[in-house]
Design goal:
The longest helix has 41 residues. It contains 24 helices and 10 strands. It folds into 4 domains: 141 residues, Rossmann fold; 174 residues, 2-Layer Sandwich (Alpha-Beta Plaits), CATH 3.30.70.270; 108 residues; 103 residues, Arc Repressor Mutant, subunit A (Orthogonal Bundle), CATH 1.10.10.60. Strand 4, helix 5 and strand 5 form a beta-alpha-beta unit. Helix 11 packs across helix 12 and helix 14 runs antiparallel to helix 15. The strands form 2 sheets. The protein has a 5-stranded parallel sheet, sandwiched between helices. It has a 5-stranded mixed sheet with strand order 7-8-6-9-10, with helices on both faces. With 548 residues, the protein is of the alpha/beta class.
Amino acid sequence: MYKVLIIDDEEPLREAINILGDWKGLGVDQVLEATDGNVGLAMLRQHKIDIALVDMKMPELNGSQLLQIAEHEFPDLLLIVISGYNDFEYTRQAIRSKVVDYLLKPVNRNDLNSALRKAVDLLEAKRKKESEFISRNITLNMSIPKLKEKMYLSIIERSFKNQSNEAFLPLIGADTPGHFFAVGVVRLLNLEQVRKGRFHEDRDLMHFAVTNVINENSGGDFEAFSFVSPRAEREFIAIFTMKGGYGQDAAFLSLHHMKKAASTLKELFGIACAGGIGEPYSDCMDIAQSYDTAKASLDAIDLLNLKIGIVAAGAGAKPPVKDSPSLTARMPLIRNILESGNVNHAKSILGEFTGQWQTSGHFSLGAADRTIQEFIILLNDIAKELNAVPERLRGGKDKGLRGLGIAGDFASFEQFEDVLNHILDVYTGEIGRSLAGNRGNVLENIKAYIDNHYFENIKISMFTDKYFLSREYLMKLFKAQYSYGIHEYVQKVRMDKAKDLLSDPALKIQDISEMLGYKDKNYFSKAFRNYYDCSPSEFRLLLPGVEK
């Protein structure tokens, strides 16, 4: 459990942080408050604080002064800076003091808990000390690298603002002319397998090890800096910086470094990976273009002929784009099959598509990813209509494969097929359980409706639309339950009612016909004869007490 101290002279901000923090989820058992820097320093000396949130602008002892003292007196303390000023001069001391993160006022829930999670993760990693390698580098991973990562991401996402962030450009070497920047994207093809087998299911520890391998042997005139992609958990982004020289040299060194990193990851940890690399640019703002090229190159790698450790260069020739058959058009059929409980038939339909993709000559990693996402969305839409959304997805933070509890590793087309079948199994099981629980009530409701509305024009589509069941499946269920098809049952109810009404001599056959929903007396008479082998008039003559 951890102890947190909030040091801020503004009571509303302290209160907001207290409310917004996910303290229980983070393992924080005590949150203390200090009204200014002096009080905060005294509390740091009095209590064993793990994480301190420090406002940079406070009376008497301000944030910068407090950080300088804390750096010497409390070297193990993790610091998160809060500032209303996005200014390099104001946060210079924060960088020197190796703070975990920087929060701008007003603080929002996501940014706060993200910063706290980083601090808690660092505390846990440091306490584990699983290897001398990690212990030696953990401190460096607490400060400037996080700021560099944010800067690179803002450039890649094209949200970087020169005026407010220009002072930070020296951190990434973008203030010196003659530098070249290239981007590589590395995809871990067996992430879950390695995370469980080699890193005891510790995701952060694995991420740390991977980034250190990619960054290894860089420095001097050529540097690599990597981090986990926020867009895809299986992918890492690597920024290659070459100081001086020519663009061709930067391209060669970046490609060579990527291939060496892929080989090392396989050798040290058994990590199978593939990568894409973009062209180098002299303007750091073109990092975004290099990333787009690297990502496109990675996505274009042919899954049918994938080789572990392959790195596709953006300038290379790309295979022609082919349209892959879409599952969307066949989902109504798959839905009907799932409702009937025929899992094997559903898998055979899925197998038809995977067979088409496999014989198409080219099926890219990007197409595989899009297919998985599309398949989950389509099945989830069906599950929502049938009230059968998998429990792990109901209100959970995790979505997609992780939300379904599926590893999602694939380094071959066969493994990709296994992922699709696993997804189908999860939804099939949930849909089957849901339908089994609701089927009885649905059939009873339909029967009761017919019993009370037999005189109306009853169509099966009324029930298929209401209960989101296919026509064939619903008719099959109803007949199995009541030994009549739905139309047959409507006819039975009408004919039973007709016998009761005909026993009243005061009612005319025309009136009875209309009461039963027949607008044509002759049609009613024909239907009655077909059902009882006699006309309504003949039936009346057979009733006791009727004069022959």
